[in-house]
Please model this.
Amino acid sequence: MLQNYFKLKEHNSSVRTELLAGVVTFTTMAYIIVVNPAVLAVTGMPQGALMTATILSAGISTLIMALYAKLPFALAPGMGINAFFAYTIVVGMGKSVPFALTAVLLSGIVFLLITVLNIREIVVNAIPVSLQKAIASGIGLFIAVIGLTNAGVIEHSYPLLALGDITAGGTASLALIGILVIGILLALRIKGALLIGIIITTLIGIPMGVTNLSGLSSPVSLPASLAPIFFHFDFSELLSLDMLIVVMVLVFINLFNTIGTLVGVATKAKMFNKAGQLPGMKQAFLSDAIASIVSAVMGTSPVVTYVESAAGVAQGGRTGLTALTVAALFFVALFLSPLFLIIPAAATAPALFIVGLFMLSPITEINFDDFSEAIPAFFTILMMPLSYSITDGIAFGIISYVVIKLFSGKIKQIKPATYVVAAVFLAMQFYFNS
Model:
């Protein structure tokens, strides 16, 4: 049944490969179960309810992606966009939580309309091929930095980044050991190297005092009630300027985060057909749009397609069975979250670092002899990890692409839709940085 529904043979995959890929994806993104509630708690929402909302929205959304789009992408409340929800809308603007959740709901509805009208696919086609390759490579650097930062190998410091304490025998040291472990497994061509590496690193972390085994004492726990945040909307400011601006920003961030992730990961996995299209892309966009609505109803920040999906794809995942596995693990985590949280960030960081390496390969297909292609591509690759944002990386790439092509006499190489996307990005940059 699984073979037929997900067409595994057509994708040169197997049930074992897909299940393994799903486990790898889940382990690399399971941190969101704890981190998202911690970020949103500054709004006054109870962390217990937020944890339940995070897990349910991730599980339901990924399930939709698995069964409808049949693609190996997982979804969960997004990092970055959750900070915008908490620190900009609620704390910065002084808006209520119901106002913010209403904005998330409306952005999901707008998302749905954009997808039905095929506007999203037009935007995807507006991204030049060289930038599509750059997006994949930029995401590679981005998730490698995420992994190293989560493990403390890299720390945010003045003036930019600094090396963490890698000699103290703690989290950072364990992460570096994990990278070597996975590297050795890959060099030996051992199947399932990423997952095996995560398990071995977790075990090594026990005598080092990094792996916390306290979850084993009570691994099963009932989820907290959603009642305080479920369907918690306020439509009194529905037609206000503040609501319009917040909804548009949420739509824009989510749109390009999803486009960047889909294009980048699918490019690396060679999932685009000969016509340059990703089969199931519209269904993927619809799944993402519905997911945003689901997250609003559950009472959390917008759900996005997760860049950590690249870990599962690197493990061989090519179909919705990978996503189905991730969804199932999220639902299990609803009752076994203490058990899943035993895996430390230091054990998943090596997997993200190695996947970042895998994602870099499309960079060889960029024509660096043509500076009108090379400079925008380099901007895209560099700005993703430095700005900690896929959206900002694409913005710098698209804007520089249009400007350089325009003034170097290569106007015919610019698609009309690319002008529009660049103009919107430019307007957004001026609005939020003025």
Q: What stands out?
A: Strands lie at 75-77, 154-156, 161-163, 303-305. The chain has a mean pLDDT of 88. The chain is about 65% helix and 5% strand.
